[in-house]
Design brief:
The complex is a heterodimer of chains A (about 160) and B (about 500). Chain A is an all-alpha fold. Chain A has seven helices and no strands. Chain B has one domain. Chain B has 23 helices and two strands. Chains A and B meet through helix 1, helix 2, helix 3 and helix 4 of A and helix 8, helix 9, helix 19, helix 20 and helix 21 of B.
Chain lengths: ~160, ~500
């Protein structure tokens, strides 16, 4: 049996809406607000029902034009690696600092995407990030946390 | 009024103020181009600098930044499909497909001319209509706003993706659900935070827009790298194309600009509505009035589809100054930041502002026109250089898009959680895009979520919990009738297409 992915997404959205609705009913409101015409849970409850209705309709109504995605042609591996690098980048940016992590993130991303022009890769990572940091931190006065540069005395 | 205009001209045409408009437009364009750093960030950054000037000069600088950032935002929408601000989301519908067809230069030129025309026309409307328009905007009540937001969301769901109304409505609901995370604006009760302190203030707009547009776009490009259908698109992306607009395209713009500027200006005047609704409504309206042949081109690189939202969002920028200056109610998030600056100067906006401080009121209006001219002079010659970003190979462009997205979030919150959340939303959005779930309805719903709840709250409290407020006022009923008409028309068209 060929399972329609759009229907599966609609089913997931239906379950998500049901969970959202359940959580909306659990929102604690003040005692004096409990029977008010509008309180903190009113709008989310309407949204939960709206989600159930639209995803339910999508589930039961026939699909006019089914979307077919050719999974063989999709680059899951490279996309996965890129997401993983981004997660590592996010995890280290605060502890290590903006300059080093961003430069390494860019360098690693270029490499995993198949780039091998080392000089260009270097120029578009370390000096590029330094220039961008100067624009943000030096000219626009946007604070950038960087323990690494602070530890070596480059940043005040 | 003539006296006021002369006072305004005298103030706006001083060397210092012309320089302020130029500097503001230039920096605004650059900051607006960077995904994640929109006009609000740009203006907020300018506030400490403006306190060194007199109020008129300070506001002129901020107005220049505003216009520049809106134009810069459309540039990133067209070239990267990464709108930095919600007001330029509609620009990407046809601007980005046009860039993919190798007409990036043309798309940017159309955007520049449309922005100029929209901004200029609305500055003229503002000049003559400001006093009476403030009275009109005062007549809008919460039920009207609520109905107007329903109309905006339905319109975008109906028009954003052909034959995908239910999918679009699911995205609208998802956007509203995301907007409901965090503290309730009135009671401060936390909702859907699951005891996570990082979610107490809700999810930021920049995070959602970066995740659903910039990041998911980058991931989709990598994912579909070997797809033969998208490979052709990637080749054409490296072509800039001419910036010349031919006669046929000019004719289309001549028709689209006047009507979009009117709708943009009028929507901009409504407090809280702003450039986002204006651009979406102008896009929807334009699609309704053009020929069937042109209609088919919408979403695939239509000149009308690009010109209309670009005109409207700039017109709305001028319009949004009306409630801010005359009522003290900001017309958009950006004018809200400017309102804060105005109060910092010790200037109290209200109906008497243009009597007590005419130089501020009129010089801003005059500098809007000057700003539009400067923006055009600055940006048209720069288009070939701006568009060179397309020539960057995908191996470099994709990491750079991810880098700008993460930086946008990082400088806002200095929080790992926000980065993880952004990556998570981007992965889900990439998967949804594969199956043609449209993202623009999600973004508009997310932006309007808070306002929508606020207006529904007021309406229900005033009507003591009864839903009669939806048809009690003629204006509310008319807006809702238009919404129903759009839905019925959409169902009819789908049915007709099937047959």
């Amino acid at each position: 049996m060929n399972i329609n992915t759009t229907k599966i997404i609609s089913l997931l959205f239906f379950i998500f809406s049901a969970f959202y609705l359940y959580t909306a009913y659990q929102i604690q409101v003040f005692a004096f607000d409990e029977n008010a015409p509008f309180n903190a849970r009113t709008f989310p409850i309407y949204l939960g029902y709206a989600g159930l209705i639209f995803s339910g309709l999508k589930l039961i109504l026939p699909e006019p034009n089914t979307i077919k995605v050719d999974h063989k042609n999709l680059e899951y591996k490279k996309t996965g690696i890129l997401i993983l690098i981004a997660i590592i980048y996010g995890a280290t940016i605060l502890k290590v600092g903006y300059f080093l992590t961003t430069s390494l993130f860019l360098f690693a991303s270029y490499y995993f995407l198949g780039e091998r022009r080392w000089i260009l890769m270097f120029l578009l990572s370390f000096p590029f990030v330094a220039a961008f940091m100067y624009l943000l931190h030096g000219i626009l006065d946007i604070y950038l946390r960087d323990p690494f540069l602070q530890s070596i005395g480059v940043m005040g | 009024m003539i006296e006021g205009i002369l006072i305004g001209l005298t103030t706006a045409l001083t060397f210092q103020n012309i320089m302020m408009v130029m500097v503001g437009c230039f920096f605004g364009t650059i900051i607006g181009m960077l995904p994640g750093l929109g006009p609000m960030t740009a203006i907020a950054l300018m506030i400490p600098i403006t306190y060194g000037f007199d109020p008129a000069t300070g506001l002129i600088l901020m107005a220049g930044v505003y216009y520049g950032a809106v134009f810069g935002g459309s540039t990133s929408s067209i070239l990267l499909n990464a709108p930095g601000v919600p007001g330029t989301v509609a620009t990407s519908f046809d601007g980005y497909p046009m860039a993919q067809q190798g007409k990036a230069g043309k798309a940017l030129a159309i955007a520049a001319w449309s922005s100029f025309a929209g901004g200029t026309l609305s500055a003229i409307y503002l000049l003559f209509m400001a006093p009476s328009l403030s009275k009109v905007s005062l007549s809008f009540r919460s039920p009207d706003y609520f109905a107007l937001m329903i109309l905006g969301l339905t319109a975008i769901a109906a028009f954003s993706s052909k034959g995908q109304f239910l999918k679009a409505m699911m995205m609208v609901v998802l956007g509203l659900m995301l907007a409901s995370v965090g503290q309730d604006s009135l009671s401060d009760i936390t909702r859907f935070t699951f005891n996570n302190m990082n979610l107490t203030d809700g999810i930021s707009f920049v995070l959602v827009v970066m995740a659903t547009f910039a990041m998911s776009e980058a991931l989709t490009i990598i994912l579909k790298r070997n797809d033969p259908t998208s490979a052709a698109k990637q080749v054409s992306l490296t072509e800039l194309g001419s910036i010349k607009i031919n006669k046929e395209e000019r004719t289309k713009m001549y028709k689209s600009i006047p009507r979009s500027s009117v709708i943009g200006f009028l929507i901009g005047v409504l407090p809280g509505a702003g450039a986002t609704i204006a651009s979406f409504l102008a896009y929807g309206m334009e699609r309704n009035v053009v020929s069937d042949e042109e209609k088919e081109k919408f979403g695939k690189g239509s000149v009308n589809g690009l010109s209309a939202p670009e005109t409207a969002n700039n017109a709305a920028c001028s319009g949004s100054f009306v409630p801010m200056l005359t009522l003290g109610i900001p017309g958009s998030g950006t004018t809200a930041v400017m309102l804060g600056a105005l109060l910092g100067f010790g200037v109290q906006p209200g109906p008497r502002l243009y009597m007590t401080n005419p130089e501020i009121f009129w010089s801003i209006i005059m500098s809007m026109y000057i700003g539009m001219v400067i923006l055009l002079i600055l940006n048209l010659p720069l288009i070939p250089y701006i568009a060179r970003i397309l020539a960057v190979p995908k191996n470099y462009l994709i990491p750079l898009i991810l880098f700008f997205s993460v930086t946008g979030i990082y400088v806002m919150s200095f929080n790992n959680f926000d980065i993880y959340l952004m990556i998570g939303i981007a992965v889900v959005a990439t998967f949804l895009r594969l199956y043609d779930f449209p993202m623009p309805p999600l973004i508009l719903a997310f932006v309007l979520g808070g306002l929508m709840e606020e207006n529904l709250r007021r309406s229900l409290l005033l009507s003591n919990g009864s839903w009669e407020f939806l048809w009690d006022r003629t204006l509310t009923a008319c807006i809702l009738a238009t919404t129903i008409l759009i839905v019925v028309w959409h169902i009819y068209k789908t049915f007709k297409r099937k047959n």
